[in-house]
Amino acid sequence: MKGQKRYENKMKDYLAVRVLTPGKLFAFWQVNEDKLQFICKYFNIPNGRAVKSLRLYDITPNNLEVAKAGCIHEVVLRPEDSSWLFKGISPSRDYVVELGIMRTEQCFFPVLQSNKMISQVKPKDSAAVGSLYLPPDWTNQVSTYTYYENVEGSSKK
Q1: What mean pLDDT do residues 127-156 have?
Q2: Which domains does the chain have, with CATH numbers?
Q3: Is residue 70 a contact partner of residue 63, using CB atoms and an 8 Å limit?
Q4: Which residues are paired to 17 by β-bridges?
Q5: Do residues 137 and 39 touch, judged by C-beta distance below 8 A?
Q6: Is the overall model pTM greater than 0.85, yes or no?
Q7: For the chain, first and last CA: distance in Å?
Q8: Does residue 112 contact residue 31 with C-beta atoms inside 8 Å?
Q9: If you average pLDDT over residues 118-124, what whole number do you get?
Q10: Which is deepest, 70, 77, 149, 155, by most CB within 10 Å?
Q11: What pLDDT does residue 8 have?
């Protein structure tokens, strides 16, 4: 039973990003400590010396891949941190966040990557998106029980 519980906990690693308001991006995560210890041992990082870091990447269509996109913001995290609020985010850009370990001052090893966050609809796309959410024409003729039809000569027009 104990082995299965350990396996279930390993399956719950995640890093997610949500837009709270225009200009604010909230990142939250959970990563198994055993996984971090394994990575530290692999890179010969002494216990307690691992520095967790969170990186924000701008992947707007000209930078579709994280590998090609530049890190626009990096945060060194305290060991107990499990969330971060990025402020001053441009509402017309797309972002991805990575959680990782700093192997050296310049070497970042990513452990988790978030979902792609589209911070807001861009003005050029607003007409197309608006037309997607128009209700069908027949909705004004339907109630929860009966279908109504405008008949020539009826009192309802």
Answers
A1: 55
A2: 2-123 (2.60.40.10)
A3: yes
A4: 27
A5: no
A6: no
A7: 69
A8: yes
A9: 55
A10: 77
A11: 57
CA atoms of 36 and 77, how far apart (whole Å): 14
Q: Is the pLDDT of residue 125 over 70?
A: no
Work out the mean pLDDT of the chain and round it to a whole number.
77
Q: How many residues in the chain?
A: 157
DSSP secondary structure letter of residue 63: G
For 2: left if phi > 0, alpha if psi spans -120 to 50, otherwise beta; the answer is alpha
% of residues, the chain, pLDDT over 70: 63
Q: Give the span between the Cα atoms of 55 and 52, in whole angstroms.
A: 10
DSSP string for residues in 82-150:
-EEEEES--TT-EEEEEEEEESSSS-EEEEEE---EE-S--GGGHHHHHHHTPPPGGGGGB-SS-B---
- pLDDT of 130 strictly over 50: no
Tokens for 128, please give them: 């197309």
Beta bridge partners of 72: none
Q: What is the pLDDT of residues 13-24, one digit of tens each?
A: 999 999 888 888
